[in-house]
Amino acid sequence: MKVILREDVANLGKSGELVTVKDGFGRNYLLPRKMAVLATEQNVRQLEHERAVIAARNVKLKGAAEEQAKKLGAVKVTIRRKVGEQDKLYGSVTVLDIAEALAAQGQTVDRRQLHLAEPIKATGQYEVELRLHREVTAKIKVEVQPEA
Locate the Ribosomal protein L9 domain: which residues (predicted)? Predict the structure, then answer.
């Protein structure tokens, strides 16, 4: 099944691309969520017309993401957790914890934008990557401290 993507889809393509997907994936996932439309002749012509609009929207989104990256570059998050021997945490610090700490500081960030290879399991300072746009990333400093 050939579809035209209306949004960026991970591991598939960017918005505005014409891609071939399996029938079930297109029918049951992409089309109901309005992430894609069928690649009919009329839709392909309309896509050519909308490419300029899509490009302008991407430039605007990238600009907003760069602005937010500048703000977030100076942000430092401190998270306190109970620790055991050798500064090992009881549990771990995940992207959800970091997103909540950012929200407490007034920075709204979707947890899916935070990229953490594995949960943090020890005290110390860490840099967490924040993917705001496909071309814009920011680094946030996260400090994990023991509870007093």
Answer: 13-40
Gyration radius from the chain CA atoms = 20
Q: Is the pTM of this model over 0.85?
A: no
Residue with token string 């069928």? 38
Determine the Cα–Cα distance for residues 82 and 79; give it in Å rounded to an integer. Answer: 10
- Domain ranges, ordered by start, for the chain: 2-64, 70-146
The pLDDT tens digits for 37-53 are: 999 989 888 887 777 78
Tell me whether the CATH fold assigned to 2-64 matches the one assigned to 70-146: no
The CA-atom distances, in angstroms, between 130 and each of 57, 81, 119 are 21, 22, 15
Q: Is the pLDDT of residue 111 over 80?
A: yes
